[in-house]
Amino acid sequence: MKFGWLGLVVVLVALSVSAQEVQGQDEVYTARVSRVFDGDTLWVKPQAGGPYRKLRLDGLDAPEICQSGGEASRDALARRVLNQVVEVRVRTQDDYGRGIARIVYQGDDVAAWMVSNGQAWSYRWRRSVGPFAAEEAMAREGRRGVFKDAAAELPRDFRKRHGPCPMPPRG
């Protein structure tokens, strides 16, 4: 089998990506946050170049934008990281093609910061209370953010009852 120069590059990149997936290595890069969509979704532009990337913060579940606390959660994340350079560590991708990523800004895990400030819940999976259970407990105790309301509804329960938030009109 004969490969041209471009074909060889394509094969090497594919092998590199495959090896990275097999070894379970995260994709790590620095990027500037260009847009904050809601309390757990943002867009970044890698510093090394390439296309913008849509990411979901790993380990938390923020209120839906149309849910009580949703806009405050988005605004808190935007105040923290919008237009800032962050370290991105993509673990995997979700069903919507977003990278599931740990974002670090000024040495702080942004997801942990969001949960600590009551702007999101630690992501629950089956019987797990999630990676930020301690941060959530402290936010609840301090009645910060969404936890000011003792009856605050988990985003996944909100989605089950109401479905997804309607998309805002573009214009």
Short description:
This protein is α+β, with helices and mostly antiparallel strands and 171 residues long.
Label this structure with key terms:
171 residues, alpha+beta
Question: What do you see in this structure?
Answer:
The protein has a single domain, classed as Beta Barrel (OB fold (Dihydrolipoamide Acetyltransferase, E2P)), CATH 2.40.50. The chain is built from five helices and eight strands, in the order αββββαβββαβαα. The protein has helices at residues 5-23, 70-81, 110-116, 133-141, 155-162, and strands at residues 27-38, 41-46, 53-57, 60-61, 85-93, 99-105, 108-109, 121-122. The strands form two sheets. It has a five-stranded mixed β-barrel with strand order 1-2-3-6-5. A two-stranded antiparallel ribbon has the order 4-8. A hairpin with a 5-residue loop joins strand 5 (85-93) and strand 6 (99-105). It is globular, with a radius of gyration of 18 Å. Mean pLDDT is 87; it is low at 6-22.
